[in-house]
Amino acid sequence: SFSGLKTAVIYMVRKDKTLLSRKNIPDLAASFQKAVIDVLVEKTLRAALSYEVPTITLAGGVSSNSYLRSEMKKRAESYGVDAIYPPKEYCTDNAAMVACLAYYKLKKGQISNIDIDAYSQISLKT
C-alpha cells in the first residue's frame, strides 16, 4: 500500500499551497509516480532474484503505465531477468465491471450514501 506516501504528499501540500499551482502539479504527479514505480520495481526484482525467477510478468491495469513498463524492462535486464507484459489493450482493470454492477444496482434502487466506506472485496450480487 502507498497510503503513507499519499498521506505525506497531502501534508506537504497542506503546508505549502504553492505546490498546487498549475506549474507544480505535473512535477508533483511525476514525482509521486516515480516514487511508487521505484518501489514496485525494486521489490519485484528483489523477490524474483531471491526465488531465482527468470521471468516477471506485468499484468492488470497498472501494467499499461509506460514508465512502469520501461523501468521494469530496463532494470530487470540489468539483473538478467526477463520482463514481459501483454499489449496495452489487454491491460485493463475492473472499472468497467464496477460501473456495470453500479448500473444494475441503481436500476434495482440499491443506492449507497455518499459517505459509504470503500471495500476491496464487495459482493457482485445485485
UniProtKB/TrEMBL annotation:
Pfam entry (one): TsaD
Domain Gcp-like: 1-99
Protein name per its UniProtKB record: Gcp-like domain-containing protein
Species whose genome carries this gene: marine sediment metagenome
